[in-house]
Known about the structure:
By secondary structure, this protein is an alpha+beta fold. The chain has helices at 23-30, 41-72, 97-108; strands at 2-5, 18-20, 36-38, 78-83, 90-95, 117-118, 123-125, 127-136, 139-149.
Amino acid sequence: MKVIFVEDVRGRGKRGDVKNIPDGYAQNYLIPRGLAKQATKQALSELAGQERAKEKHAAEELAEAKRIKEVLEGDDTVIELKGKAGSDGRMFGSISTKQIATALEEQYHLKLNKRKFELAAPIRALGYVTVTVKLHHDVEAKMRVHVSEK
């Protein structure tokens, strides 16, 4: 019997797979538990429609990430932050990814999750710093942050 897996079944198939399974196993185990459904013409066309929708959504996410990358890497895009510092240029505190995300939203109206920013360590010195932003698994942007004294 041909079935479409609704959920991952260990050793048999992943969600969305269409496979030939023994009739008894499909009718007595997979279908009653909602792990699979019979592969009819309607079910197969529904699966194809879901795949097309998923591809379209992924393409939209990629396009949005590329648009944000252009904005972040623009020559005029510099995030301005202020902090207290001593006479040697070292800050008393540090600048975290949360502060960078908040400043980005205030200055450029772009809302990004603080976990998308990749900092090896918090910023503790005045001046310009390049911060990597992971927008999509295929798109990374380099953004400039300028830290000045209050």
